[in-house]
Amino acid sequence: MDPLTHTLVGANLASTRFGVKSRLAGAALVIGANLPDVDSILYFTGHSDLALGFRRGWTHGVLALFLLPVIQAALLMGWAKLRKYAVSPKWLLILSFIAILTHPFLDWLNNYGMRWLMPFRGTWFYGDSVFIMDPLLWLILGGGWLVGRRPSVLLFSIWLFFTGAIVWVVRHRSPGDLIVVGVAATLILAALLWRGRRSFAAAALIVASIYIGARLTIHAVTATRVRSEIAGTRRLMVSPNALDPLRWDVVAETNRGYRFGRFHWLRGGLKLESDVLPLPADTPEWRAAKADPSIRGFVTWMRFPWYEIERTPAATRVLVHDARYAVRRRAGGGFGGVVVVLRP
Length: 344
Hints:
The structure is a single chain. The protein is of the alpha+beta class. It is built from eleven helices and seven strands. The chain has three domains: 3-133, no CATH class; 136-161 and 191-278, no CATH class; 284-342, no CATH class. The chain starts with a helix and ends with a strand.
């Protein structure tokens, strides 16, 4: 998921009784909810392929789930000693573990994927159930964190940020989506101005869990239905829409090739596109491109690979794509695609 969702989960946890278990409990929960994304620092080195191959691996896998809480708790206790704070080492370790565990679970929910077994195995796991930037989760978690706090310019600014971010995500969608966002944002603002004294963070976390559970259930039922309707399906991705839980985008690897379509429970079920994208043939160019060190990370990450070959007198260009994101031909690669130049 996006950093905002992770941060909101940590902030809501810190607003429950967990937040008073120890000094620095809030820091343990908010930082821990984001800590596995420390691997994204590799993007600042300029080696984007290396960063892509490392993402959602070592710092998200099973070994990290036990090592990162210990590291974070030790750093927090060191800070507490420096500042002469009285803290509970036991609770800092427990809260660090809880917060860090939420991160890979949320990352697993979308179609980007997660490698739970790293560093022992690099197998990718995909929840395919919640969009990577889910505006409804922002509303639920953002509302739970805001409501019940004393109104201030800072909180009103945070509300404006949440509302603006959500509108930015859904701006190209139907007017009905914007109406839903507007009504929800207005209700949250009214609750914020109400000066309630109770914390709604625990309720927000419960509602968010129910929402995620509903998405997982709908995805499982939808995937079963789609698989039964597409003959010869080998592998299947039924990925979520940012707002509509009844609409799902479909990529199916079949015996004939990749099929693309959309499934909506209220609008005619499954509708497949007529075009079939061929599966990658085992050619010398394809083998050479996959073995090229410059795209090692991309090869690790791609889920539904396909490629094109462009030949010129000077060189052969292999355009490698992932059909999850790149279903149209893009000469420059773009998101979901890379280019390998094979010299004679």
